Amino acid sequence: MVTDASRWDEKYQKSELASLRVEPLLEKNLGFIENLPTGAKAVDIAAGKCHASVFLAKRGLDVTAIDCSGVGLELGIALAKEEDVSIRTLVLDLEANPLPTGSWSLICCFRYLNRALFPFIQDAIVDNGLLFFSTFNINHLEKAPRFNAEYVLQPGELQQSFQGLEILDLSDGDDPDQNLSWIVARR
C-alpha cells in the first residue's frame, strides 16, 4: 500500500533544492509577523520543503517544521542552511498522529487540509499569536476535476472553523475565480 509519506518522499526525491519561495499570504501580512517577539515559537504544519519555515526563521522566529516526508524535510534543512538560518523538523504523519501539544506564537499551514486538526490548531495559539492557513476550495474542482473533493474547503468553512479567533484577513471561497481560501487570524 502506498502511504502519503512514501508518495511524498518519492516526489521529493525527484526534486532539487530550490531557492526560497515566499508564501504570498505570509508576505502580504508581514507586518503582523514582524510584531511578534524575536525567538517566538512557530510551527509549519505540512511543511513540505519548508519554504514557509525558512522564511519565518529569517524573520527571527524559532520554527518547527512538521511533515510526513523525511525527504521533504531534509530538503528544507538544506534550504535553511543555504539561507543561513536553522529550523527544527519533525517527521510526523498527521493523518495517523495528533498534532504535538504546545503553545505557538504562529501556526501556518499551506495546501494541506485535515479538518480534525482545526480545534487543536486554534487551542495551540498563544494570546496575540497568529494563524496563517490557506488551501484549495471548492472552486479548485473546476480547474482540477479529478482532485479529491474531500480535500477542498467549502464557502465559509474557515470563518466557521476558527470563529474563536480575530480575523485579520479572509478569503473564504465566495469568489468563483479564486481556487484558494485563506485566513489570517489572531488569538
Low confidence ranges = none
- Percent of residues in beta strands: 25-35%
Shape: globular
Radius of gyration: 16 Å
Number of strands: 7
What class, by secondary structure content? alpha/beta
SSE pattern: HHHEHEHEEHEHHEE
The CATH architecture can be given as 3-Layer(aba) Sandwich
CATH class: Alpha Beta
General description of the model:
The protein has 187 residues and is an alpha/beta fold. It has a single domain, classed as Rossmann fold, CATH 3.40.50. It has eight helices and seven strands. It has helices at residues 4-13, 24-28, 30-34, 51-58, 70-82, 118-124, 140-143, 157-161; strands spanning 41-45, 62-67, 88-91, 104-110, 125-136, 166-171, 180-186. A seven-stranded mixed sheet has the order 3-2-1-4-5-7-6. Helix 1 (4-13) packs across helix 5 (70-82). The protein is globular and about 40 Å long.
In short, what is this structure?
With 187 residues, the protein is of the alpha/beta class.
Outline the secondary-structure elements.
Layout: H1 4-13, H2 24-28, H3 30-34, E1 41-45, H4 51-58, E2 62-67, H5 70-82, E3 88-91, E4 104-110, H6 118-124, E5 125-136, H7 140-143, H8 157-161, E6 166-171, E7 180-186
Record keyword descriptors for this entry.
187 residues; alpha/beta; Rossmann fold; seven-stranded mixed beta sheet; 8 helices; 7 strands; 30% helix
